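Bench notes, afternoon.
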Amino acid sequence: DEFNDMLNKHNLTEEQLNICRDIRRRGKNKVAAQNCRKRKLGQIEELQEKVDEANRVRNRLKLEHESLISQYASAAAKLTSLTDQVLAHHNKNKQEYLVQVEGETVLILPKCSCQTNTASGTDTAQDTILSPPRQGQAGGQRSCL
């Protein structure tokens, strides 16, 4: 290589050649170490950006989760209130009866019989059938409260 050609042009002792090669090797190693540190810092910066992005996503998901929990609690409270209103309207004790919605049919059943008769597909101990839900209410769902 170029370095060895340059050294061969001068009359140097073996010890002088070894010193020159050692100096060159140390210089190359120093540059390689600087490049390695620079790459390492780049990797650290990249990882920090990924951590920051993951934290942003986590915070967004946490807020979304809290919002969904709040919406769920609100819907559950509204459902409980509506159930209480339906039972009160029909003079039924909410400790003993429940409201069941199946499609457009609303049933008031004793709490001990919120089961479907698997042979006939009908509910047992039916007490009262109410009118279909008003427009805008969900239909086609079945729920026991």
